[in-house]
Write a structure and sequence with these properties.
alpha/beta; five-stranded parallel sheet; 10 helices
Length: 370
Amino acid sequence: MSIVAVADPEPEEAPMTTCFVIAPIGNEHAPDRSPELQAFEENLEIYEKVILPACARHGIVPVRADGIADSGEITEQICRHVLQDDIVIADLTGGNANVTYELGIRHLTGKPIIHIGEHGQLPFDLSQIRTIMFKRSRSGLVRARQDLETALEGALHNGFVPLTPARILFGLPAAAPSAVVEAEPDDPEAPGLIDRFARVQEQMEAMGETTETMAGFMTVISEVARQIGPVLQRASQPGTPMSAWLPAMSELGKAMAEPASGLREACTRFAGQMVEMDAAVQMAFDVIATMPPEQRAGSPTGFLEQMISTAESTHEMVGVLSEVEVGMRWLVKMSRELRAPGRDISAAVKQVSGVVTRIADWERRARELI
């Protein structure tokens, strides 16, 4: 009887985990010191120092939109990656419109997605979704890389809870409430109550600076409109040809482009700061609520008064922003030259209006406790 040696079949190689990175890419060919080039440099830094090494730790090769080499319509390729890749990492810094759009598509798939974002730069409407927050410093980026490594580990091995849009779409049961993870009492890095209050004060100061920036841009926009007013009046005289409006519209559009873009960025930053502050502010309210009224004099009362003042000034700012938007809405219909600044101003109003409910809640609780 002959013996035939049969080689064991080689084990099938496990398919490589695919990973797509949603991020505001920017433009590496834009002029020096331009916002587009700055966006490219900033997001390339996050990709190279945070995302790439974290993925490499797990043997994953991430792909960004500007790294897609296939021929064809790039928007179709991006959609395929967003819909089909095993994992998506989304950099939400700055509230980029394209990122938000692609993010919404991914949320509906129910597949793993990991959110990261720079402190103060998050779009307000994603605030309830767990996000890896980072500071753009050496230690901040190292911590973000470590957190992303941990998140990838969870996405690869521990399953992934679909977000609300996917659960509704697929008829899945409601997710169990997330457990609140408390820092260990002996954790040297755990912030104490005073540390949290000090952080609120620090954030309030940063938010005040952002508010001043927003007011400055609104002043510039108003001044531009005032200066161009006489030109528009001459163009609107009876018998003046419609072509006389074109130079004025072009001049107005160019003059408003930069302040309108700056206003949008500042409002996005303001909304992100508001979201970051909310948990600490609510905690402060909870602590003050446990204090007897006679013990609330001094710092607690000063804090409550500051919250009321912040709410009042924010409501006033929203009103001014809305007035600016109404004026721009009328001008935008008159000339395409004003569409870009008009969109920026509308986006700015939406960003700030989106956090008004938080502000209103701060004011309500502060007035109840004061």
